[in-house]
Amino acid sequence: MKELSRWRNWLGSRRLTLLAALVLFVVGLLVLGARLDDLKPSKGGLELAGKFLGAAFQPALGYEAADLPSTTPPFWEKVGRSLVLTLRYAVVAMSLALVGGMVFGILGSRAWWPVLNQHSPSGWVLLWVLRTVRIVVRGTATLARSVHELLWALLFLTAVGTSPLAAVLAIALPYGGTMAKVFSELLDEQDASAAGVLRSGGARSSAAFFIGVGVRTFPDLITYALYRLECAVRSSAILGFMGIPTLGYHIATAYEDGHLREIWTYLYVLLAAVIVIDQWGSLVRSRLSRPRPAREAGRAEDSVAELHRKRPRSLVLRASVVTALMAVALGWMTEKQWQSSLPAERRQANFERFLHEVVPHPVRENGNDWREFGPWLKERIWPRGMVALHRTFHIGTIAILVAGCGALMAVPFAARSLAGRDALGVPGGRERVSGLRAGAGRMLRVTALVMRSIPEYILAFLLLQVFGPTVWPLVLALALHNGGILIRLGSEVVDNRPSRAGQVLVAQGGSRRSSFLGSLLPESFNRFLLLIFYRWETCIREATVLGMLGVLSLGSLIDEANTRLFYDDMILYVLMGALLVFAGDVVSDLLRLRIKRGAIGSGGRHSF
Amino acid sequence: MKVDIQLTDAGISFGGVHALRGVNLSIAEGEQICIIGPSGSGKSTLLGLMNGRLLTETGSVEVLGQDLLQLTARQMRELRCGLVWVPQDLGLVPNLRVLQNVLCGKAGRLGFLGLLRSLLLTRMSEAEEVRSLLERLGIPEKLYERTDTLSGGQQQRVAIARALFQDPVAILADEPVASVDPGRARSLLELLTGVARDEGITLVMSLHHVELAREFFPRLVGLQAGRVVFDQSADETTDRQLRELYATGEK
């Protein structure tokens, strides 16, 4: 028994975890056949990279092409329009995802269940109904989330044709699923003591849930929604690669025309938009979690009206609410035609044709004889599908391992509490390099911000042109983007939890690095692991679509099937990808639950 | 004298372990009583039986003349409107204003929509009432502050204000001073017992500190391993009884 329990606790062991990571890394490299000398860019690639990076310092301020038809709109109008479109789709999609996520999130949680008497028959039946609802709702949300927004877009576009509504739904579905999952976790983990008091005071379960649990969860929900809005802007931009005229579309066409400086203009605009939303999100979060005191303190003898006038108010929060509501309203109203311009009959016909062609072709051609289905499926899954699936898994895994290691090494330099002069708040004495170190820390944080602000799809697209069609560009793109996220989250872990042991080490004369290695890292190792597992799941999800850029994996099979109009194959590979993500999701959830229950006691939640 | 809470041979077990066994207890209207005993002796469970958060498995529990086991959900809610539970962590909603937290005291009487109306469109009369309650507790100026910006002692006062706003028949307080320094614990107990006496509210409290229990409560109930070992006036309670109460709990 002792042996068994030791094995069951293997995740608590840092060495085994690191060993497993190393083994996964090596196996992944072997499976992908990735060689380090592939990382040397081709001569043409190097030249292109040089030119491309050179163009970064002189983004286009007007069209690069000289001879343009007179009907062309001014350059900035085009840029502005594509930015507005990108933002509009993101905002509208998020408004749908937020509402859907709240409904599904509540139904998928246990927190709203009334206290039931399991011994009475009616209570027992009700309990089973609630459980079934919960499982169905969670399954639906996970399915919606398992298919990447680009693939949803692909499906919608082939089924009903290009339309703003299709673009919005492609984002809203997976995002709604994610919001639902996060919201129900937030609700279930919420401290329910206030709800208990309300219920004990005679309140109905509904009132106790909404006030005692719902209100408490609201700030976390809003913070998370703002983070997802930032992601939605990125997703909306890369929908351009599917032919919807958002920022990504213009990046792709500018690349095809060889207008490198224009690419940078669009990239900078996208970066600016994402960073503005990111900073807005942090501002809102800080106001929600650490409200500022009122400008004028109330006094004991003040009347209610006077106290009301002096109540603490946050201009930031009020302005944010107004901005958000206006953005949603404008986003919905400024689109004249949500449906595509095709007449309804054509859409209907398209959809029916799609439904017809989704049926595997041997089945279809033999008059719906499903006996042909087995051989057809087998031929596609083995070996092609499985090889692609295997490669997709390893691309995501290697990327997260690289990102995780990089972030762990960067965190001691990026974390504010370590980068300042007084490490962990222990006065460090005068030193010459403190300014330099603080500067380096700031640089690192800005780099991480930029890294996580560029969509991995665009990053992979650009890297592919430099390195040629190996797996490295995909791995690098994923690693860079997720590394940027992990550096930020990791720094927050270090900064938000003052470490006594770390302070003791510094006070005993230890250096920053030694206090990080000796106390901060071991103390928060499991927290880092949680973050890495969380990002691992998203990495695998992204890896399924990055292959669409032309590197053998599930994405490339989907893309190939799409260009050859084999919709039956396309759906099959999309479903295989969804299955992989679904499995990754479940495994990552189980591991995270295990870690949470194990070594981590109480502690704040992360907003992502 | 009218009896508020009557436990007859009450008992409950969790996973085969008896948390409480054969408890007989009678608490009169307006009485102040303190439950003492080592950790795990069943203090919180006993309080849970009194407002129906837990249901007794043996005997009966009668509150305000009603048998808790016989009540429908609706009757249970109506009964609970007159009972306040103050848990150790107070159970306040941290991101609501003090005013709103206090208004939650009427959650049972107002119903869901009524509560929402009261929280979002607070009437002047309600705000005045809450302000005067807070004034009595010494923190009127905090009326519109966000609750989590208040100190621990101030938050306790908010919880008491919420309890009083509920206009209860009885207050059941579970270790309300467990995580507070001695000075603050004393002032809080003075406040609670004083208010309960003025309003004629029955007060049942569980406490760790034996000295505080003896100082503030006329009647003590000693619990040990789920059984009542003594139930008598504080004056009768000897040091030896208290030593024995805690000594065996340590084994």
Please explain how this structure is put together.
The complex is a heterodimer of chains A (608) and B (251). Chain A has 608 residues and is an all-alpha fold. Chain A contains 24 helices and no strands. Chain A is globular. Chain B has two domains: 1-82 and 169-251, P-loop containing nucleotide triphosphate hydrolases (Rossmann fold, 3-Layer(aba) Sandwich); 95-167, no CATH class. Chain B contains nine helices and ten strands. Chain B has helices at residues 43-50, 73-80, 98-103, 107-120, 124-137, 152-165, 182-199, 210-216, 239-250; strands spanning 3-14, 17-28, 32-36, 58-63, 66-67, 83-86, 170-174, 202-207, 219-224, 227-233. Chain B is globular and about 50 Å long. Classes of the chains: A mainly alpha (608), B alpha/beta (251). The interface between A and B is large, with 38 and 46 residues.
In short:
The complex is a heterodimer of chains A (608) and B (251). Chain A has 24 helices and no strands.
Summarize the topology.
The complex is a heterodimer of chains A (608) and B (251).
Chain A: H1 2-8, H2 14-32, H3 43-55, H4 75-107, H5 121-146, H6 149-160, H7 164-189, H8 193-200, H9 205-238, H10 247-256, H11 260-289, H12 304-309, H13 315-333, H14 344-358, H15 361-365, H16 373-414, H17 416-419, H18 434-453, H19 456-467, H20 472-496, H21 500-507, H22 512-546, H23 554-563, H24 567-597
Chain B: E1 3-14, E2 17-28, E3 32-36, H1 43-50, E4 58-63, E5 66-67, H2 73-80, E6 83-86, H3 98-103, H4 107-120, H5 124-137, H6 152-165, E7 170-174, H7 182-199, E8 202-207, H8 210-216, E9 219-224, E10 227-233, H9 239-250
Parallel strand pairs in B: 3-8, 3-9, 6-7, 7-8
Antiparallel strand pairs in B: 1-2, 1-4, 4-5, 9-10
Helix pairs in contact in B: 5-6
